[in-house]
Design goal:
This protein is mostly beta strands. The chain has strands at about 10-20, 20-45, 50-60, 65-70, 80-90, 95-105, 110-115, 125-130, 135-140, 145-150, 155-160, 165-175, 175-185.
């Protein structure tokens, strides 16, 4: 059944692996309607996006189809890389799907988000083992800023009831360290 808010492509997974020092991105569709192609885009700041690759879609399909690309041309000096999947119909309509956060670094610190997943009634704690104070940004599932929390020492708490059910990201920044963690609230 097709509704007004139905996306033309049903993506059932979008993930990555680090393979031979490259980022392999792969996704799976359960169905496709009028699907011309996919575009994979990369960003280092969630604002400026560049195309990594285009991959032809399968037009119309009701079977599971696997796709993948390898990104060997990213800036290896960056600790965090964002990728998003864009789908373009034959009629030119563009659909943006969620983005991935790739942590690409050899780090000497630890970040713990607890509890995760969390109930919407839980307070969420973020622990940072680095020696300096850190800044944090809470982002929605599309990368939009919800709130900034600056100059935290070792720990910060997101008060219970502050987040509705959904997918969020917390971006931790401390000098040359920048890392993003997924938070699931149900």
């Amino acid at each position: 059944m097709k509704g007004a808010n139905t996306l033309p492509v049903n993506i059932i997974s979008f993930d990555y692996s680090i393979v031979k020092d490259n980022v392999e991105l792969y996704w799976q569709t359960a169905s496709e309607v009028n699907n011309n192609y996919f575009e994979v885009q990369r960003s280092y700041n969630l604002q400026d996006w560049e195309m990594v690759s285009n991959l032809d879609g399968n037009g119309n399909s009701n079977v599971i189809i696997n796709y993948s690309i390898v990104d060997a041309n990213f800036d290896r000096s960056k600790d965090v890389i964002y990728y998003r999947l864009v789908q373009v119909d034959f009629d030119g309509r563009i659909n943006y799907y969620r983005f991935l956060v790739v942590n690409y670094s050899n780090k000497n610190y630890e970040i713990i988000v607890f509890p995760n997943p969390a109930l919407y009634t839980d307070a969420i704690n973020v622990y940072f083992s680095g020696d300096q104070n850190f800044d944090a940004q809470l982002l929605d599932q599309y990368g939009g800023l919800i709130m900034k929390m600056e100059n935290n020492h070792k720990q910060l708490t997101i008060d219970k009831g502050r987040l509705a059910r959904g997918l969020y990201y917390i971006k931790i920044s401390c000098y040359n360290v920048e890392e993003v963690r997924k938070i699931i609230v149900f």
